[in-house]
Amino acid sequence: MPRHVLMVIDMLKDFIDSNGTLNCGESGRKIVPFVVEKVKEFMNQQEPIIFIMDAHSPEDPEFSRFPIHCVYGTPGASLIDELASLIEEYPFAIKVPKTRYSGFYRTNLSKILEDLNPVAVHIVGVCTNICVLYTVEELRNRDFRTIVYSKGVASFDEEAHLWALKQMETVLGAEIVE
Question: What is the pTM of this model?
Fold first, then answer.
């Protein structure tokens, strides 16, 4: 049976919770119910779910451009409660910590996907114009069929969010669906 994979990008407390140090604002909170439903859908089908998770060192050079966020081992770097409690016992949940925008940079994501050999990778998460975009770019460079849920991605910058969706569709060839 063809395997589909759900990739949940940076649905972490520092990005989603209202008191997170780099929260995406209301647009980030708005996608939580959709993301939870997608996770439940993939769990019901016993399909793999990959959680791409920012996990920085306290001295990360990225902090010269963005506020300190998602420091490895801190509460802000953990999955939002709505997802953490949901997947606690799920055997097909895979967590991939990352230190840069792309989920592939210095991670084992390529090997995970090679082993899973999915017919499609489905994408939800934040921020559309940053970590989602650069992870989708890498998926498409590896010729994975990539499906991005417009109702399941968000950014603190609506104009950049819309631009990124268009780039993913027209330049990268990702499928943008509701």
Answer: 0.97
